[in-house]
Structures are given as structure tokens and as C-alpha cells.
Design a protein that fits this description.
The protein has 284 residues and is of the alpha+beta class. Helix content is 37%, strand content 24%. The strands form 3 sheets. Strands 10-1-2-11-12 form a 5-stranded antiparallel beta sheet. It has a 5-stranded antiparallel beta sheet with strand order 5-6-7-8-9, with helices on one face. A two-stranded antiparallel ribbon has the order 3-4. The longest helix has 22 residues. The radius of gyration is 23 Å and the shape is globular. The termini are far apart.
């Protein structure tokens, strides 16, 4: 923080102790004049006219330097619209390369009672910017006296991350909710891409999830059928993708707001689905 405010640590610490601050200010008048006593409003950018070019040696896969911003990551998230609303299902594994860092990551960001966001890519990037989005959505409500639409919320997130394209962000998120137009589902990534559709799956295990979704999806699904489809799609992704695992967290976005349906460990689900398969086709 002292770096962001262009102040020496001793001077910045003086904000918590007026006596220390007044004594230090005598020797650092120029720096003290630039102190920012509130939260930093934006990130520092590199001292360059073109930050993207400045960061290119660290973000390009062809660069000769050994320092890389890009990192290995994986997850599986999905969302689909049906007659009963929107289903969101995610796994809960966080990896750092080949190391499983956590099995209990919360990859659904509860923006407000009528909006949900998902995390895929860099956990810090997704978590931070979707919480910034939550703040912007709340400010919109206070200013306009009504809830923000799903489309507008996704557009805000897209506009924010577009300004940081090429600077190393890693995000593949979905924003879903319910507004005056009914259920909404949008995909937003760190390049500022923004798409809407009835089905999305994001992450390293998304190809496996899409296979299950394509086989079982239809708009006229009943609630329990939709729950089973989302749960099974995430399970099969965790079974085949080493970077996905933990538990299946399932949410249902209704007209009255989102509801968390279940959190199922993939271990018991594996044996449950194997027993169902054996009952239908015999032992494998």
C-alpha cells in the first residue's frame, strides 16, 4: 500500500499514529503531500505509455524470459436455462499446477439474491472482479431504485475486464439471474468477450460436461431432472479431468431468487452412478 501511495513505510504507518506522521512529514514533505488516506481506487499501472507492450515479455508464450504470468489452472463450471429457471453447477477443486491446493473452493459468487457468478481461471481474478461487480450492482440499485438486469450486470463486468486485456487476467465466468425479462445467462471472459446462450460450460473439464449436457438437455426438463443433469455433468467432468474434483455445488435460479440445492462429494456420486450403470447394463 505504501508503494501505491508513493510514501515511505514509516510515513504511511503514521496515518495510524498522528505523532509519528507529523514528525516524519518534516523530512518528507513532497511524499506526504501525495498520501491517499482512503482505499486505493485503482491498481497501479506500469510506468509505460503502453502497459500491454510493457508486460509482453511476461505474458507471451514465445518470450525468452523465464518469468511467466500465465499459469496452469483447471475447473469445471456449467449453467443452462430451462423452463424452471437457470441451473448452475460447479466443482470445488483448486489446483496450483499438479498440486491440489483445495477441495472446498466456493466457485459460485453470490452477487445478490437475484444474481450469481461463477469462477473459472484464476481464483483471485474471478473472486475480486465479481465482488467489484457486486458493489456496482448495489450502487445501481441505490441510484435507480430497482434491481439491475442480468444483461447490464454482465456488460459492466465485460467493460471492466476489457480495460485490462493483455495484462495477464485469467477469467472465464458466467453471470446468471432473473430480471423483468425472465431468466438470463451470460458468459464473460478476461478478453471482454460477452455471450448469451441457453447452455454454457467453462473450464478444463467443460468438454466432458458438454457431452453429458448435449445428451440429456431439453428446455422442458422438470426441476429434479435438471438437478440430476447438472450434477451428473459435473461428476463426469471430475472423473475424467484431473484438475476438477471435490464436490458438486448445485444452484437453482428461480423468479424468487437463487436457492442452493445441494453440495455432493464426487466420491459417493461415483459409486452411485456405477451401481445404476451396473443395474442397467450388468457388471463391466
Amino acid at each position: 500500500m505504501a508503494h501505491y501511495c508513493r510514501a515511505k513505510p514509516a510515513v504511511f504507518a503514521g496515518l495510524r499514529d498522528k505523532k509519528v506522521a507529523s514528525k516524519a512529514a518534516a523530512d518528507t514533505n513532497d511524499e506526504a503531500a501525495e498520501l491517499h488516506e482512503g482505499p486505493v481506487s485503482q491498481f497501479d499501472l506500469p510506468q509505460s505509455q503502453d502497459p500491454v507492450q510493457f508486460l509482453a515479455p511476461y505474458t507471451s508464450t514465445n518470450a525468452e524470459t523465464n518469468v511467466k504470468i500465465h499459469f496452469a489452472h483447471g475447473t469445471t463450471t456449467l449453467g443452462f436455462k430451462y423452463k424452471g429457471g437457470v441451473i448452475i453447477a460447479v466443482d470445488s477443486r483448486a489446483t496450483a499446477g499438479s498440486y491440489i491446493a483445495s477441495q472446498t473452493v466456493k466457485k459460485v459468487i453470490e452477487i445478490n439474491p437475484y444474481l450469481l457468478g461463477t469462477m473459472a481461471g484464476g481464483a483471485a481474478d474471478c473472486s475480486y472482479w465479481e465482488r467489484v461487480l457486486a458493489m456496482q450492482c448495489r450502487l445501481y440499485e441505490l441510484r435507480n431504485g430497482e434491481r439491475i438486469s442480468v444483461s447490464a450486470a454482465s456488460k459492466i463486468l465485460s467493460n471492466i475486464v476489457w480495460n485490462y486485456r493483455g495484462m495477464g487476467l485469467s477469467m472465464g465466468t458466467m453471470v446468471c439471474g432473473w430480471d423483468k425479462k425472465g431468466p438470463g445467462l451470460f458468459y464473460v471472459d478476461s478478453d471482454g468477450t460477452r455471450l448469451t446462450n441457453n447452455i454454457f460450460s467453462v473450464g478444463s473439464g467443460s468438454t466432458y460436461a458438454y457431452g453429458v449436457l448435449d445428451a440429456g438437455y431439453k428446455y422442458e426438463l422438470e426441476d429434479e431432472e435438471a438437478y440430476q443433469l447438472g450434477r451428473r455433468a459435473i461428476y463426469h467432468a471430475t472423473h475424467r479431468d484431473a484438475y476438477s474434483g471435490g464436490q458438486v455445488n448445485l444452484y437453482h435460479m428461480k423468479e424468487s431468487g437463487w436457492v442452493k440445492i445441494s453440495a455432493d462429494n464426487v466420491g459417493p456420486l461415483h459409486y452411485q452412478y456405477q451401481e445404476e450403470k451396473a443395474a442397467l447394463y450388468g457388471p463391466q
